Amino acid sequence: MEKDEIKEDGFMKVLTPREIVSELDKYIIGQDEAKRSVAIALRNRWRRQQVSPELRDEIAPKNIIMIGPTGVGKTEIARRLARLANSPFIKVEATKFTEVGYVGRDVESMVRDLTELAVNMAKKEEQEKVKGRARELAEERLLDILLPRKKEEQREIEEGDKEKVLEVVRSDRAEPFSTREKLRRMLRDGKLDERYVELEVANRNVPMVEIFSSAGLEEMEFNIKEVFGNIFPSKKKKRRVKIPEALEILAQEESQKLIDMDKVVERAIRMTEQNGIIFLDELDKIAGAESGYGPDVSREGVQRDLLPIVEGSTVLTKYGMVKTDHILFIAAGAFNVSKPSDLLPELQGRFPIRVELDSLSMEDFVRILTEPKNALITQYKALLATEGIQLEFEDEAIREIARIASMVNDRMENIGARRLQTVMEKLLDEISFDAPDMASKSVVITKQYVTEKLSDILEDENLSRYIL
Which one of 3.30.465.60, 3.40.50.300, 3.30.450.20, 3.40.190.10 gives the CATH number of domain 3-125+264-356? Predict the structure, then answer.
């Protein structure tokens, strides 16, 4: 596949499975098996594009179920994967959906949301392509506001090259155009940045209409929005803004005019169908046998509604029909009460890859605090550096933080790496509060400091239940 074609289909760069795992390693500690599985699934998408067209449509995506407790990296793996592939990605909770006949969200809404996201992505890419031209047009419009054209000039532009108008304009054209060029230079040099201009911008106040209906009627929502949009047409309102902001507003308006929305929608639908990723969280909450009493929404009913979407069906969106045959579904759940085998057999068959994620140990916590690009310690150092505070952590202090977080997880609900955030927030609470007023701008966190700050919480288990 050529580079341009790859880019057209939504891939920024074709990565090998080893490169994908290497990229995921920068942000996620451990979980090597899960990383390998998603890397293969992503590479298989590229491989599918290389096969002959008649076979391409027959190759189904290898959907994945991630099994593991909360806070071990399931969502993060899926999110980072979507960024690597530059794919439309949406995370939905299976518990938000209800079966046919009950009030609530229709399962098809996740495909509509994914398509909306893809349209925004494609629109942004197209706007980047016309950014230069939009900027030029915005500059011309801004110069027209700063230095309105004479009536004769305006007439020449509107009516074309008429002999009479040209004679009138030629006589005194040099002066205004030289002034315009001076203004243009001042505008580009930033000499007019503090000046205010008055702009007319569209102000559309469409009443909020939310429909709570049974499945199958939810698509009425966008039709009603369009109807109200026509009943209440856009009105212009005047805004007084500084010139740099005015230039941005005008450039945005011009870029909207320059892009071909039909092309954007066509590309977005292709991105959704070929590269879309839907992350189905809390799948275990809709697994299991029925209670047999009460008005609870049937878990099995939700599974039955999800089944055609995962199997491959056509969903109506406001941008047209979207096929779900090749959307990659990554499901996740703790499965501590129910098991994957409690799901409908048909649904199980649509998730051929099962990956079990490991619980995090104290050593994993030490690595999570220090190794990833977005490590918690790196974040806190950067936050306090804005106040001029140089924050340092001793190695023993980091190990003590990891030990305490691991111990609290063992004693209470195990929430994985999320526990580190609550421990770190409690540890640095005093420093974060006093940072603007501190005389000493260098702070070293020692093991003793960690023990002093967190020992009370560990001793009083009842208190730690509420705080951590």
Answer: 3.40.50.300
For the domain made up of 362-463, the CATH class stated in words is mainly alpha
pLDDT tens string 187-232: 888 888 888 888 877 765 544 444 444 444 445 555 555 555 556 5
Picking from 445, 430, 361, the residue whose alpha carbon sits closest to that of residue 397 is 445
Cα separation of 224 and 231, whole Å? Answer: 11
Strands (E), 106-254: 196-203, 235-242
Spell out the residues 6+ positions from residue 287 whose beta carbon is closer than 8 angstroms to its own.
Answer: 299, 303, 333, 335, 338, 339, 340, 342, 343
Question: What does the block give as tokens for 282?
Answer: 């809390």
What is the value of pTM for the model shown? Answer: 0.78
Domain boundaries, the chain: 3-125+264-356, 131-258, 362-463
Cβ atoms of residues 393 and 104 within 8 Å = no
User: Which 3 state secondary structure label does DSSP give 100?
Assistant: coil
How many other C-beta atoms can be found within 10 angstroms of the C-beta atom of residue 206?
Answer: 14
> Distance between CA atoms of 443 and 327, rounded to whole angstroms?
49
For 290-349, the pLDDT digits (tens) are 544 444 456 788 888 899 999 999 999 989 999 999 999 999 988 888 888 888 899 999
* Closest to 107 in 3D by CA, of 265, 327, 266: 327
Best CA proximity match to 277, nearest among 83, 3, 124: 83
**65, β-bridge pairs:** 331, 354
* Dihedral, CA of residue 113, residue 118, residue 123 and residue 125, to nearest 10: 150
* Number of neighbours of residue 103 by Cβ within 10 angstroms: 10
